[in-house]
Amino acid sequence: MKKLVIFDLDGTLLNTIADLGNACNYALRKGGYAEHPLTAYNYMVGNGIRRLMERAAPDASQETIEMLLEDFRRYYDEHCTERTEAYPGMPELLETLTAKGIKVAVASNKYQAAVERIIAHYFPQIQFSAIRGERPDCPRKPDPSVVFALLNECPTPKADILMVGDSAVDMETARRACIGSVGVTWGFRPVSELRGAYADHIVSDPSEILTLAGADI
Fold first, then answer.
1. CA 43, CA 62: separation in Å to the nearest integer?
2. Rounded to an integer, what distance in angstroms lies between the CA atom of residue 103 and that of residue 81?
3. CA distance 53 to 153
């Protein structure tokens, strides 16, 4: 049985795309830039909010990006739980893993304060062993530093770890950290991206993660 399962947040545990897109559109609108359909944000998120804003406003200067980011954060901090929802079966999956004695952790490219607030709102009953969002002292995924930081908080042999995510970023992070990867099909990116990133496993139902973790008995 595995000892630790590391989850991506956006597109894996939670469907956050509407709140992310609305916050980005608010900042764009306020800055005089064209807004985007919410579905377009599936391919803009995943590398942190700075990269999101750079993709949403590719012609903006870095000075303007800073202004847009301030507006984004201000809006998102107030509205990040309006339309976000846990994916079906994910709360139950987390509860079962922890009941079986398997530690759970989060590794996200979303800024730390937002990660902590959202997790506390949607999973108040879950005791996460570690929660890592974007921090100034740690490179973003796919750099494996986030995994190593998590392991400093909850030391675990790499053979006993799974990393679960919905994008190539997560699969590449796991590969660089030399831990097993699980791609989920219910997130923001297509299955072809997961296959192209050489996911060790691809699942379409949370119950399959229980099996891979050896917790289905």
1. 21
2. 25
3. 31
Residue 12 DSSP one-character state:
T
The secondary structure of residue 87, as a DSSP letter, is P
What's the CA dihedral at 27, 33, 37, 43 to 10 degrees? -80
Per-residue tokens: 144 = 């494996």
Contact (Cβ atoms closer than 8 angstroms) between residue 144 and residue 173: yes
Q: Where are the alpha helices (DSSP H) in 14-61?
A: 17-31, 49-56
Claim: this prediction has a pTM higher than 0.90: yes
CB contact burial 1-26 (16+ within 10 A = b; e otherwise) = ebbbbbbbbbbbbbbbbebbbbbbbb
H or E stretch covering 5: strand 4-7
Do the Cβ atoms of 28 and 100 come closer than 8 Å?
no
- Residue 143 has a CB neighbour count (10 Å cut-off) of 15
Give the number of other CB atoms < 10 A from CB of residue 189: 22
At residue 78, the 3 state secondary structure works out as: helix
User: Per residue of the chain (217 residues), what is the pLDDT tens digit?
Assistant: 999 999 999 999 999 999 999 999 999 999 999 999 999 999 999 999 999 999 999 999 999 999 999 999 999 999 999 999 999 999 999 999 999 999 999 999 999 999 999 999 999 999 999 999 999 988 999 999 999 999 999 999 999 999 999 999 999 999 999 999 999 999 999 999 999 999 999 999 999 999 999 987 6
